[in-house]
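Notes from hallway chat w/ T.B., transcribed later so I don't forget. T.B. wanted the structure written out for a chain they're using in a teaching module, and asked if we could keep both sequence and structure tokens in one place. Agreed to drop them here.
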Amino acid sequence: MDNDLMLTLGIILILLIIPSLLAAWVDGRAPRVGAVVLVIAAAMILTAISRTPGGYSFGDIPGVMMNVFSRYTG
């Protein structure tokens, strides 16, 4: 898995688990699945950043994500 794909998947996973974490918090239960997915997503993002020479800046992220989407959808 290349670094751009790993970064994009990590960001998407973080966005997808926000409702799960909020639902668990509102219901007063432990967010077990959300916490596990959050750890996995954070590990993916940190691995992608550390394996990329020079890392990523915040300005690079939209271009990287569009590049990944265009690579795998068209």
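Follow-up for T.B.: The radius of gyration is 14 Å. Might be a good example for the class.
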